[in-house]
Amino acid sequence: MRTIYVAGAALATALAIFLIFALFSGDVPRDPSQAGETQAAAPSARASSPTAPTPTVPPIVLPALPKAITLKTLPGTASPVVGTVVDGKAAISYARLGRPWSVASLPPFSKGQRVGGNTLPRTLAVSALLPGEKPRAELETDADYKKAALTAVRWSIRNYHPADSKVTWTASQRLATGKGWVLGYRVAYQVDGRQRVSHAALALLDIGQRKPAMFFVTVPDTRKQLWADIAPLVTSVRAL
Questions:
Q1: What is the full per-residue pLDDT of the chain (240 aa) written as tens digits?
Q2: Are 130 and 148 in contact (CB under 8 A)?
Q3: What is the pTM for the complete model shown?
Q4: How open is the CA angle 98-101-106, to the nearest 5 degrees?
Q5: For residues 100 and 4, what is the distance between their CA atoms, to the nearest angstrom?
Q6: b/e map of 175-195 (b: 16 or more CB within 10 Å)?
Q7: Which sign, positive or negative, has the C-alpha torsion 195, 70, 89, 137?
Q8: Topology of domain 81-239, per CATH?
Q9: CB under 8 Å to 117, separation ≥6 — which residues?
Q10: How far apart (Å, rounded) are the C-alpha atoms in residues 26 and 22?
Q11: Contact 145, 238 (CB under 8 A)
Q12: Are 94 and 84 spatial neighbours (Cβ–Cβ below 8 Å)?
């Protein structure tokens, strides 16, 4: 009888242990590697969704520079010189012209003169430090200044002439009044379906800093009598 009682107690104990394991088996955590696989699936689904393409800005294509062309005075009526524009930030000075030119605030330029309003194509004679980041190294040679001037011309075409403008070089020479380079260029474009032209020039000047000074002048054919001002303005530029 005692043997039967002990056997029954052992059986009851085994049954209780089995029920406890069965009851709490749902609390066992999943394999972390399986959980990671489930979480990683969501980003892959998002990555597969299409995204809108990033708009690209078309490059400004310039023709190869000529070996050397002197900046010439164009036909027209030269404006009177009435003083000097002193640009302390760019550390240069140049001729201040009388009417129809007027001195004006023309951001991002530090100093400047203009004729007319802000609609492209504009009539400007302006100065500033070379736009963009500082050159990685000091500009020392003619080739250095020429390369930097090409970059500045691209910037001027993109920002101060109508879209799809085409450039023809009219001058490429050393700066006559110090270390630097001068580029002259004719800019062809269309306005309201009509072929139009501006003449422009850009000079870079050594001012003893990593960034050179920039002088930029542009005049459209609607004011072609002022084309005669371009060369005298450029030759008047001096480092302070």
A1: 444 443 444 444 444 444 333 333 443 333 333 333 334 444 444 444 445 555 566 788 899 999 899 999 999 999 999 999 999 999 999 999 999 999 999 999 999 999 999 888 999 999 999 998 777 678 999 999 999 999 999 999 999 999 889 999 999 999 998 999 999 999 999 999 999 999 999 999 999 998 999 999 999 999 999 999 999 999 999 999
A2: yes
A3: 0.76
A4: 135
A5: 125
A6: bebebbbbbbbebbbeeeeee
A7: positive
A8: Protein Transport Mog1p; Chain A (3.40.1000)
A9: none
A10: 8
A11: no
A12: yes
Which residue type, as a one-letter code, is found at position 109? Answer: F
What residue ranges do the domains of the chain occupy? Answer: 2-47, 81-239
Could you give the C-alpha distances from 2 to 5, 10, 16, in angstroms and in order? 5, 13, 21
Confirm if 168 and 185 have CB atoms less than 8 A apart. yes
Burial profile 103-138: b = 16 or more Cβ within 10 angstroms, e = fewer = eeebeebbbbbbbeeeeebbbbbbbbbbeeeeeeee
Residues in the chain, overall count: 240
Reported for 143-148, long-range contacts at CB under 8 A and 24+ positions apart, including other chains, are: 145/175, 145/179, 145/180, 145/181, 145/204, 145/206, 145/212, 146/65, 146/172, 146/181, 146/183, 148/181, 148/204, 148/212
* Alpha carbons 142 and 146: distance in angstroms, whole number: 6
- Strand 238-239 relative to strand 92-97, pairing: antiparallel
What does the block give as tokens for 112?
């400047």
Gap between the Cα atoms of 66 and 60, Å rounded = 18
Residues linked to residue 150 through DSSP beta bridges, in sequence order: none
